[in-house]
Amino acid sequence: MDIRLDESLVTRARECAQAIAGDVWQHIDTHTTDSVERASLRLLGVVGVNEIDVPLVNVVVEHGRDLLSGGIVAPFVDLMRRSGTGAQTTAEGVAAGALSLQAVPAERRAAVERRAAELAKEGVGRVDAARRRREELVGKLADPVKPWVYVIVATGNIHEDVLQAKAAARAGADVIAVIRTTAQSLLDYVPYGLTTEGFGGTYATQENFHLMRAGLDEVGEELGRYVRLCNYASGLCMPEIAAMGSLERLDMMLNDSMYGIIFRNINMQRTFVDQYLARMVNARAGIIINTGEDNYLTTADALTKGFTVISSDFINEEFALRAGLEPWQIGIGHAFEINPATPDQVVYQIADAQLVRQLFPEASPKYMPPTKYMPGDIFMGHIIDAMFNFTGVFTNQSIQLLGMLTEALHTPLMQDRYLSIKNAKYVFESCRHLSEQFTVKPGSLIEQRANETLQKAVGQLEHVRGIGLFQALRDGEFADVKRDPEGGRGFDGVFTRAADYFNPFYGALAEGRLSGPPVGPAPGEHGN
Amino acid sequence: MQVKPYGDTRDDGVVQLSFTLPVPYSVKSTDVGKQFLERMGLHDVAVAEVKAIDPDFTFYVAFARTDVTIDPEEVKGDYLEVEQMDYYSINRLIKEGLGRKLIVVGAAIESDAHTVGIDAILNMKGFAGNYGLERYPEIEALNMGSQIPCEQLVKTALDMHADAILVSQIVTQKNIHVQNLTKLIELVEAEGVREKFIIIVGGPRINNAFAKELGYDAGFGPRTTPLEVASFLAQEARRRMWS
Are the C-beta atoms of A64 and A102 separated by less than 8 Å? Predict the structure, then answer.
């Protein structure tokens, strides 16, 4: 059901995105952040908290704050060698005040860097082991048919989350996302341990990741298909959460290059540096990232500003490719947010969704449900969701985040999730091969809308290329939100790299990366 | 006049229900659901759907009749009487009536670290498909975020010559919100600036009567939209300042 598109526009869009990202790269290559350094310590194996619940990685990075422009890894590994202990014991020593970080003297430099490179390789080896385990499980069980059915759990209590996630998987969910507690993205540390209280969601902690992973593996075994787990590598601790997720075999992470800037007022200089390491980790781990363009349409109007989603998708894609993510790992974001009162709403939605599918043929588009115009009338809401599901299967999306009939009322009840999965399954199965039966009429409304949107996106990309991405964000080009390059949260955690900046993870994560998605039989091929 | 739900005949009292019980489906599930609804005082229960949605959970859709009635005239309370306006008429009212922008400052005060409420009302993105106050061309809105001491909020409001102060209180453990909210009112009264501002509060445990009791001009509960807040502010400003 392909739409005829002006291919020269697609080429121009990618050229612009390359130039825009290339421009930002000069900043990324010359800066580090406290969160990048903390993530590096986590990959070296530092876990846990001190006696007042401050994570040890925060303690060590604060302790070595004056050394951060050179990177924390060299002084930390030097300290490990001097004290003759492992990463965890060394971090505990620093926290106890028994050990102290120093600048690495020139005579020890080469040996420290050699040792650090070995340790980085070991850390990355743990990420690889998780990826291999996923490949093994998908190969043994089965890989669900797309669009994958993606639902959220958000009780605040990890035990309740696991229970509800298992129920959702049994009802047909392929991906479970655990919504984080409100405002975790603004915490400049990652909470530790199992948690049973949260507000509007559950804390993203490594232990919670671990418990949910175990629960989904268990139900996956029962159902004979691999059930994927998603969380959020976003906010002030983006690279750290990516590191934790990679070790605990998360399969998907919301990991946008600009979301935090626009919607969480996190400093842009910080975010661009953070997203690079986070995405390198995700690339290594075989994690599918999700970009967050759907959010633009919750502030800006989907009918008139739909093109901003497309231009941002191109920029996000380019940042992702530069971090080593393969196209299948890029969950390009878009959404079904045109006002249902608009005549021909679904025609426009099909045009927009099909455009994304065609512009990113090898990616895994993530299609987000209606939220902005969801009514308290759950019966009507259920029908709007059905039209969303129809558009998703008709345009061959990869990941469908299901709408809930109670959207905007409360976090999903047990039956809400069940009803919404039932809705999606019915629509997907009943319309599975529908779009193959049709061609898009030349000159039709769908063809016009898609080309017009692409044209406008290219116009915006050319404008952004001209002024630079920092200025574009300052001007409010995306989502109508304006941000100051020097403003926002976390700016005090951005450091200009010194000439001798050293971080072995950038090299170790890129070198010898595994390739390709996990491959498994279709569900039912094992007879279960 | 006493009324009952109307299904397809006056006073038939028909209600529709759906719920989930945390028990496995079994041969007696239909009766379990039926008797559960009868214990709620309903009768003529018809279980339309009973289904295992998990090995340990059973989902019901049912219809039943109630004998309970209500007289709307007897429902009394301290309600906020605001004429609900749309985005354009609110902006027009401010522009034509005030002749300048309406200035509002908002924060989650004191110990409260949650911005979800104040963000829903003030941020561009808004809530439930409603734009936040920042988006209104005729409103100048400052969102100070969370954990803002009352002193700082009042000082900012004075510096900005604000017309209104919006307070959010999400956390209510051990009634901490009452202390926080009382502190703000005591502060503006002690400074002699109470009358300079329209002061309103919102949060999951807030209602208008409770807010009035604490000395606020209005209180907004859960599911309040930016439109409701903006409608109130514009009308209250008109009442106080230009009529």
Answer: no
